[in-house]
Write a structure and sequence with these properties.
single chain, TIM Barrel, 2 domains, 10 helices
Length: about 300
């Protein structure tokens, strides 16, 4: 973080990361610590950061305040060649086949910017994950899972079409969610229809539960929030709604304000906002604890 708490420029961030690695390598060379098998257990791809069907206020790429589209005018949309996905994922699995680590299942995250279900090769990626999962399990290893973040609109196939494709191979589906009411949700996640995404969640929960009942894989379902002035007071009701729907987890993060137009919506902007946030937390915790048996 920079001194004022904002996200640092990427060049400064890279310099800091390089320095951390330099110091870590130097320390390892000068120490007597025995090196273990430290292998990555998760890969995150930026498959299609320039593709989304919503314009959420806080989104760096698609907000009404964003300058990304103007800055990239004349450039082709960033879409990862599927050959690169294949190469990286195969090498990732090869590492673990050659030097098996602990008993944790490996994970693949598609793009966390944009809507990954719009990636033109997404269904091929699902098939690739299944293929590499079999390679690992054939050697007695835990396997490979998808870890998906989506905006809840389930473009192209709809929730009922995507459910049988993603649920059997996914560890967690995080659905972006920002209100307990239609007005709040739609004012933040512009382009979304509250009734439609609510129905999508119901379909996903129903399909997940049917799969588990039939002896299939359990996929955790999560509502993922951005904490804002407009929605912080609805968080207790969002938790209650999640429990009623059969969602397993509600998580979130405070706003990263990329533009001055969003500065006044952060719950960390001043002492009054922080105080109101802190007064809300005990109620949210009380409701979460009261409904914990419903979300296991």
């Amino acid at each position: 973080m920079s001194k004022n708490g904002e996200i640092p420029p990427i060049a400064d961030h890279v310099d800091q990361m390089v320095e951390l690695y330099r110091r870590a390598i130097q320390h390892r060379r000068s120490s007597n610590v025995r090196q273990g098998k430290l292998l990555p257990w998760r890969i995150t791809f930026d498959t299609n950061p320039d593709d989304c069907n919503l314009h959420c206020d806080m989104c760096e790429g698609f907000s009404q305040y964003s300058t990304v589209k103007a800055e990239r005018k004349g450039l082709s949309p960033r879409r990862m060649p599927f050959e690169l996905v294949e190469k990286v994922l195969e090498e990732f699995v090869d590492l673990h086949l050659k030097a098996p680590g602990d008993s944790t299942a490996l994970e693949v995250i598609p793009s966390t910017m944009g809507e990954p279900l719009l990636y033109e090769h997404f269904e091929q990626m699902l098939s690739l994950i299944q293929q590499q999962d079999r390679r690992l399990k054939d050697q007695g290893l835990p396997g490979l899972r998808l870890n998906l973040t989506t905006n809840g609109t389930f473009p192209k196939l709809g929730a009922r079409g995507w459910a049988p494709k993603v649920l059997p191979i996914t560890s967690d589906i995080k659905i972006s969610w920002n209100g307990a009411t239609k007005g709040t949700q739609e004012s933040i996640m512009r382009g979304q229809t509250f009734e439609d995404v609510l129905e999508n969640v119901k379909v996903l929960v129903s399909e997940r539960d049917a799969l588990v009942k039939a002896g299939g894989h359990f996929c955790r379902l999560t509502l993922q929030l951005t904490f804002l002035e407009e929605n912080y007071h609805e968080i207790p009701d969002i938790i209650r709604l999640a429990a009623e729907l059969g969602i397993n987890r509600v998580k979130g993060h405070h706003l990263w304000s990329h533009w001055k137009e969003m500065d006044g919506r952060s719950m960390k902007r001043d002492a009054d906002a922080v105080s109101r946030w802190n007064r809300m937390i005990p109620l949210a915790e009380e409701i979460a604890n009261a409904n914990s048996d419903l979300t296991k």
